UniProtKB/TrEMBL annotation:
Ranges annotated as biased composition (Basic and acidic residues): 217-227
A Pfam family per the record: PAC2
Segments of this protein annotated with the region Disordered: 217-248
Domain of life: Archaea
Protein name, as recorded: Hypothetical conserved protein
Gene3D superfamilies recorded: PAC-like subunit
Transmembrane segments: none
Length: 248
């Protein structure tokens, strides 16, 4: 049975939860990792789910072993982050989405889901486009912050799609911000757009994203192994937005 295990008490008024599951371009993970690191967010809980790999992760210069899917909080900024170091497979996706969504509802958070839209763009000066979809009355949030509607009919797949679906069936006010991203490699430039155009305005926080560009190559190298695993995974395990025509 899936559950969110709170390990530290925290006090938030009207938080935004930023979801960072691995997906195409690792855009959501890179953006969420950046938030956790920049704001030195506090590890407050983990997601336990039968379909998730029973592994422990660790970091450099730190003895602490932690579960692969964790929740962080920043009381000063009224911010929550869902950080994952492994893909959520299709067996676990539905139970995982139900568990996380029930917890989000209990803490009164507005979920901000993140997804990449695979594109092949050869122009190095191209700035990745961002658009959004919503559940409940989340469209008001997107409109308020000038986030465009989708350019065509499409599908948000993978575990992020399961979270959006669950929010919709539960009539939870939420948004999913989608960015054009590299379908093969980690894409820090696309993650910067998510932070600048989506996360920052919606969560009402100021984020320094210059380092994502300055350290782009280093970030790609750090995330390359996970990106390779995501490429090998089925579409059900990789969070991404795709045009509906791909399913016709």
């Amino acid at each position: 049975m899936a559950c969110v295990r709170e390990r530290v008490e925290f006090d938030l008024d009207d938080p935004v939860l930023v979801e960072g599951l691995p997906g195409v371009g690792l855009v959501g993970k890179i953006a969420t990792d950046h938030l956790v690191d920049q704001f030195d967010m506090t590890y407050v809980g983990s997601v336990d789910c039968e379909g998730l790999p029973e592994v422990a992760v660790y970091d450099e210069d730190d003895y602490t072993a932690r579960p692969p899917v964790r929740i962080y909080a920043d009381e000063e900024r009224d911010l929550l982050a869902l950080q994952a170091d492994i893909p959520v497979n299709r067996v676990a996706a539905a139970e995982f989405a139900e568990c996380v969504t029930d917890w989000v509802t209990d803490v009164g958070a507005t979920p901000l889901y993140l997804s990449g839209f695979p594109t092949q763009e050869d122009d190095p000066s191209h700035v990745p486009e961002v658009f959004g979809v919503a559940t409940g009355s989340g469209a008001e949030i997107l409109t308020e912050h000038g986030i465009d509607t989708p350019p065509e009919q499409g599908v948000v797949g993978g575990p992020t799609g399961a979270l959006v679906n669950r929010a919709d069936t539960g009539d939870l006010d939420g948004v999913c911000v989608v960015v054009e991203s590299d379908p093969q490699f980690p894409d820090p430039a696309a993650s910067k757009q998510l932070l600048d155009k989506g996360i920052g305005p919606i969560a009402d926080i100021t984020i320094d994203t210059d380092t994502l560009v300055e350290q782009a190559e280093e970030i790609r190298e750090q995330k390359e192994q996970l990106a390779e695993r995501m490429q090998q995974a089925s579409e059900e395990e990789s969070s991404q937005a795709q045009p509906m025509r791909m399913f016709e």
